[in-house]
Amino acid sequence: MTGFLQNTFNGLVSGAFYALLALGLAVIFGMLRVVNFAHGAFYMLGAFGAYVLLAEAGVPFWAALVIMPVGLGLLGMALERAFIHRLTRLDPLYNFLLTFGLTLILQDLVKLRYGVQSSPYATPAELSGSVDLGLFDFPTYRVFILVFAVAVCVAAWWLLGHTRVGMVVRAATERPELTRAFGIDVGRWITPVFGFGIALAALAGVLAAPMRAVNPLMGADLIIVVFAVVVIGGLGSIFGSVAAGFGIGLIQAWGEAYLSDWPILSQTIVFIVMAVVLLWRPAGLFGREEAPA
Amino acid sequence: MVDDPTPGTAKRPPSALAAAGRAPRWLRYALLAVGLAVAFWLPNGLYPAVAVDILCWALFAVSVDLLLGYTGLMSFGHAAFWGTSAYVTGLVAIHLGLPFPAAVLLGALAAAALAVPIGYLAVSRTGIYFAMVTLAFAQMVYYIANEWRSVTRGENGLQGVPRDLFGLDLTDDYWFYYAALPIVLLGLAAAWRIVHSPFGRVLVGIRDNPARARALGYPVRRYKLTAFVLSGFLAGLGGGLFAVGHRFVSLDTLHWTTSGKAVIVVVLGGIGTLWGGVLGAAVLVRLEDWLSFSGFEAIGLVTGGIFVVVVLVFRRGIWGSVAALAVRWRTRRRE
Questions:
Q1: Residue A58 CB coordination number (10 Å)
Q2: What are A108-165's pLDDT values in tens digits?
Q3: Which of A92, B23, B52, B280 would bridge with B268, disulfide CB 3.0–4.6 Å?
Q4: Is this entry keyworded Transmembrane (chain A) (predicted)?
Q5: What residues form DSSP beta bridges with A214?
């Protein structure tokens, strides 16, 4: 029982990363109809930025937790204005390709400067140690991530549900044609929302720095899993992205714990779930069915 | 309609296909003759190993373009077929000692077999979802190869893939190029036949207007799946030859960056122009070889940069731009 709960907690923690990344992808997709391939690269930049700030300027974790999302969010807005904006009237595939190209560039820039080795990042002193959760001890830092990520998701949920910008984003994400038909000026929110989505990815990156190996490729494989997550949740649904994020984190953790004799299965369980979901509901668990293709 | 939220505004660059089709017959034959001459001369002008890579990547690009350019489906997971065939070809050649064309054929068949379930699931989505689904399944194949170490040797890769052809000495890349060339030309001819057959016409019809194709009574999903499997087979031919050409199979052949590179090659050469893919392969493979030879380590910086520039300002690609220029020149002369 204790082991099960521990695995469940670990699953929720990795699910928190998926949820933050999938949420950012979902709002960006909502406003721009762009699946941002560079999302994983920004996650990596968040973690790497935190490492560089600490190692080269002595900036602590808590400051990095603010600096990196804001800085990378601004960089994201600049990239949106410089590149992505030019492709808005074209097939969405071009933006996917563009952000793929940006990913290769961002990864290699970091690789050129810092090599491919992993860099260590110390857990902040206040969050080291572990918390007694009754049945078992759990690392404090992981508890912090879980609480923090849930808080961010709830805050994002509140913003989306109770502010004017949020309503526009939600409407544009879930009923794009109707939103335009109502004459809502979606255009002016595109760049800030892109920056916001990137900031969420950067935030996840900073959170990952003390827990995962910081290296230029850390976002590369993660982003593919996040794509699977949004396919499962339904990219047209913000709630679906977050729910599928936590769900996939759980399934993966349980898979690793209980299917460890079949490593192939435990590594690919996310994609197996995706295959089953596609068979059952092609639009994803919370997505709306499209016109048959 | 979640996939195409803005009907009518989503545009592709004007197809160069129409332009090429209007070229006079003598010009088409002349171009074909020049192309064949270049293909026969290639290993005399380049390092033979690079020339072999160009052949393999040309097939890979054409297989991706068959979907992207002619069916309107962007597979971002074609490394699954390229890499699966590379592994199967390598294993067959090592353990069964078959001549390499037979090993490559088995590899390509394995890739086509893998394309059946992946394609079956993927064609239920279109557009950007299709790209993500193919990408995710390709990553699944990557993990399987990584974990199934007793067969794939994990990160060490398959070493010492033989290059047997009834005892002919093909250890020199120069001679291997000429042994591989007929297979590649057959693959390219098959792609050309597919595109110019009634089946290919239906694919283009589906790309341009799926609803109309369905209304005309075509089973759209079955057509897409067939195209996907054929494309997987062609990608597998390229991947198998790549394995024999390098005498080594690594996990890189299954990685998503390989899938991405295949799409770059197509976009660089020109979407919807089969020969553009061949040209794009030649340019990118040559460039990468030159970069790594000159000791430049960040190849992704250059390929990523090419990607960004091509997508932003050069969407017709090399072949598409040349064809468009030729058409403009011809119409101006006529006026």
A1: 8
A2: 999 888 877 888 887 787 777 777 777 777 888 888 999 999 999 888 888 887 888 7
A3: B280
A4: yes
A5: A119
Buried b (16+ CB within 10 A) or exposed e, B182-217: ebbbebbebbeebbeeeebebbbbbbeebeebeeee
Report the predicted TM-score, pTM, of the whole model to 2 decimal places.
0.87
Check residue B153 and give its pLDDT.
Answer: 81
The closest alpha carbon to B147, from A123, A267, A60, belongs to: A267
State the alpha helices, DSSP H only, in A83-175. 92-114, 140-162, 164-174
A36-94 pLDDT per residue, tens: 999 999 999 999 999 988 888 888 888 888 999 999 999 999 999 988 888 877 888 88
Are A156 and A165 in contact, with CB atoms under 8 Å apart? no
Task: Provide the token pair at A143.
Answer: 């508890």
pLDDT given at position B22: 60
Instruction: Round to whole Å and give the CA distance between B256 and A217.
Output: 12
Put simply, the answer to whether A96 touches B131 (Cβ < 8 Å) is yes
Q: What is the dihedral of CA A64, A66, A67, A72, to 10 degrees?
A: 110
B155/A129 Cα distance (integer angstroms) = 35
A160 CB contacts (<8 Å, ≥6 apart)?
A: A27, A166, A167, A169, A170, A238
Residue of B nearest to A174 (CA): B2
Q: Which two tokens stand for residue A269?
A: 């369980």
Q: What is the amino acid identity at position B216?
A: L
Note the pLDDT tens digit of each residue in B194-242. Answer: 988 888 888 888 888 888 888 888 888 888 899 999 999 999 999 999 9
CB B40 within 8 A of CB B242: no
Chain A residue with the nearest C-alpha to that of B211: A293
Q: Which residues of B27-48 are buried (b: 16+ CB within 10 A; e: fewer)?
A: eeeeeeeeeeeebeebbeebeb
Please judge whether A278 and B146 are an interchain contact, meaning their C-beta atoms are less than 8 angstroms apart: no
Tell me the two tokens of residue A235: 């990219």
Count contacts between A and B (CB, < 8 Å). 160
How far is C-alpha A260 from the chain's CA centre? 26
Q: What is the ipTM of this complex?
A: 0.83
CA-based end-to-end distance of chain A:
46
